[in-house]
From TrEMBL, chain A:
Protein known as: 2Fe-2S iron-sulfur cluster binding domain-containing protein
Pfam families for this protein: Fer2_4
InterPro entries cross-referenced by the UniProt entry: 2Fe-2S-bd_N, 2Fe-2S_ferredoxin-like_sf
Regions that span the bilayer: none
Domain of life: Bacteria
Gene Ontology terms, MF aspect: iron-sulfur cluster binding; oxidoreductase activity
UniProt signal peptide: none
From TrEMBL, chain B:
Domain BFD-like [2Fe-2S]-binding: from-to ranges: 378-429
Sequence intervals crossing the membrane: none
FAD/NAD(P)-binding domain: residues covered: 5-319
Protein name per the record: Thioredoxin reductase
Record has RNA-binding as a keyword: no
InterPro entries: BFD-like_2Fe2S-bd_dom, BFD-like_2Fe2S-bd_dom_sf, FAD/NAD-bd_sf, FAD/NAD-binding_dom, Metab_Enz_Cyan_OpOx_G3PDH, Opine_Oxase_asu/HCN_bsu
Keywords: Oxidoreductase
Gene Ontology MF term list: oxidoreductase activity
Keyword Transmembrane helix: no
Gene source species: Epibacterium ulvae
PANTHER family, per database record: ANAEROBIC GLYCEROL-3-PHOSPHATE DEHYDROGENASE SUBUNIT B
Length: 101, 473
């Protein structure tokens, strides 16, 4: 099939893959990509429950405005769309029932 | 601790970075503050360190050239830094910045705002489902991580961005389930005369659309996503045909997909301008409420300059030139000389702006889109307030966005109203039988971005707190 927009997927080289922890689960991601990206690739779209009605929420604006993708690192809230993956990173979600550190 | 500069620029996109460079080249001491790790803004966003090698794109090349220029200049860049308050002072401006958890104060004779745009996303049932992201958000994922929003994605929205996102998904190896756009083919034809002025962009856009046709990706013109299926993850979307006013009137059609990119045009990010004391006026042709700024970047306030999409959505090409013009004006102001007239640059700006405004005209949402919402559709994502909550408040007497905000907290959550105020304005206008141009956004209040209380409080021990003696009984 003729493609006018070429497929560049095979030409992208990424940094090494590592695992980090998300709510006690080991998630693999590439070093230096955003945690939101790694989580979505690993099938974790649901990142938290809205405080008022418990609605399911995940990354939305992907640029640090909406605060929907908030997770916790070391007990502090961080936007997962701005946080980069590194080995040994421990991330806790703001889902209901998730264990806060 | 405060640091003193001639000029502080807020935003390092095409407008801000070019303004900073121009002023620095004119001999000014310039600081540039930006949220991202590297300059480039949303449109020329830099890659994250994850990407070791990748084919270049027009955006990555423009961004890399700009970053190179900034690196070789005397501009002092405060990266990963967020401005949360702006105050005018006797000596000029005081800008409060959060950097690495600490507050830094910058003092400058002149302030250039280049805060760019953000996306308007029309609330529809299910738009809060994880797996639904903004069209602009999708471009951020592409540019910084070269990542996809899902395996099979519906791309829906107005203007050229919907085709750019669909094309990037294909370029990065993903599958586009369908493109859904409220625009008609005829509207695109009408924009043709303005697009001919930028044959490079016209050809690029035509390739995106032709590629989608060749790949058999369905394009639903004059359609919108009316509902998203899925509890904790997207399982599909329902689309409907629209009227000329973009109200749904067709039979629902279901499309299976695991992700949705949704956006309805860009709107100027004007909170910083409001904080700095500028009035906003409604300009549908510029994407909504924006401050009054001329081509030289001058505003009604002394020592305050503004450029790029934050002055009205005219696109990246215009923003780049507007930045250069504004850098010239601001540096002339700092040196106390009359600004020179750069006619060639002014003409180039007008040309680029005409193209950008034709794209804005295609992107601006029409009234009918509001009727995609149901009574229980969430409008304010932070506080989980639905359309019926907002309408009840309006019917109880709230006649302005400010009164809805103080009554319901719609706009007081972590996002600061960035994703609900457009819709709330429209709901108020509808209830009053007026136009959205009669319903301005609420007063901007600090902090412009969320800031930890610890950063505001500074370092002190409990014993340092002055505790007054109890009053005698």
């Amino acid at each position: 099939m003729i493609r006018l927009v070429p497929n560049h997927a095979a030409r992208v080289q990424r940094a090494r893959s590592v695992t980090f922890t998300f709510d006690d689960e080991a998630i693999s991601g590439f070093v230096g990509e955003t945690v939101a990206t790694a989580l979505q690739r690993g099938g974790h779209r649901l990142l938290r429950h809205a405080p008022e009605d418990g609605g399911a929420r995940g990354a939305f604006c992907c640029m640090g405005l909406c605060q929907e993708c908030l997770v916790q690192v070391g007990g502090r809230p961080v936007e997962s769309c701005r946080l980069l993956v590194s080995a040994d990173l421990t991330v806790t979600s703001l889902k209901r029932g998730a264990q806060s550190q | 601790m405060s640091q003193i500069f001639d000029i502080v620029v807020i935003g390092a996109g095409p407008a801000g970075a070019n303004a900073a460079l121009t002023a620095a080249w004119a001999g000014c001491r310039v600081a540039m503050v930006d949220e991202q790790r590297k300059p480039g803004g949303q449109v020329w966003r830099a890659k994250n360190p994850v990407v070791l090698e990748a084919p270049t794109t027009p955006e990555s090349r423009s961004g890399d050239a700009l970053r190179q220029e900034v690196a070789c200049s005397t501009v002092l860049t405060f990266a990963q830094s967020r401005v949360w308050q702006i105050e005018s002072a006797a000596s000029g401006w005081e800008i409060y910045v959060l950097k690495e958890g600490k507050v830094v104060t910058l003092v400058a004779k002149a302030l250039i705002l280049a805060t760019g745009a953000r996306e308007y996303v029309q609330p529809v049932p299910g738009w809060t489902t994880p797996g639904v992201i903004g069209l602009a958000g999708a471009t951020a994922m592409f540019k910084q991580d070269l990542a996809l929003p899902g395996q099979r994605t519906v791309v829906s929205g107005t203007g050229p961005l919907v085709f750019f996102v669909a094309s990037e998904i294909r370029r990065l190896g993903g599958e586009v389930a369908a493109v859904v756009t409220p625009n008609s083919k005829r509207e695109w034809l009408r924009a043709f005369p303005a697009m001919v002025r930028r044959p490079d962009l016209l050809v690029r856009g035509a390739l995106w659309v032709a590629d989608l046709y060749l790949a058999g990706v369905p394009i639903y013109w004059r359609h919108a996503v009316a509902e998203i299926d899925g509890e904790t993850d997207v399982s599909g979307v329902t689309i409907r045909r629209l009227t000329r006013d973009w109200a749904p009137d067709g039979e629902p059609e279901f499309l299976g997909a695991d992700s949705l990119c949704l956006g309805n045009g860009l709107t100027p990010a004007a909170e910083a301008a409001q904080l700095a004391g500028l009035e906003l006026r409604y300009r549908a042709d510029l994407g909504g409420w924006c401050p009054e700024v001329d081509a030289s970047g001058e505003t009604e306030r002394e020592g305050l300059f503004l450029c790029g999409d934050g002055a009205g959505i005219r696109g990246a090409a215009a923003a780049e030139i507007h930045g250069k013009l504004t850098g010239e004006t601001a540096s002339a102001y700092v040196r106390g000389v009359a600004p020179g007239e750069n006619h060639l640059l002014q003409q180039a700006y007008q040309r680029a702006a005409r193209f950008g405004m034709a794209m804005t005209a295609l992107s601006v949402p029409r009234k009918g889109l509001q009727t995609l919402m149901c009574a229980d559709t969430v409008v304010c994502r932070c506080e989980s307030l639905t359309r019926s909550d907002i309408v009840a408040e309006i019917n109880a007497g709230a006649q302005s966005t400010l009164s809805v905000k103080s009554g319901l907290r719609a706009g007081m959550g972590p996002c600061g109203g960035k994703f609900c105020q457009g819709t709330i304005s429209q709901l108020i206008a509808q209830a009053k039988g007026g136009e959205v141009s009669d319903v301005p956004p609420p007063t901007a209040r600090p902090p412009l971005r969320p800031i930890p209380v610890a950063a505001l409080a500074g370092d002190f021990e409990y014993d340092d707190l002055p505790i007054p003696k109890p009053a005698p009984l």
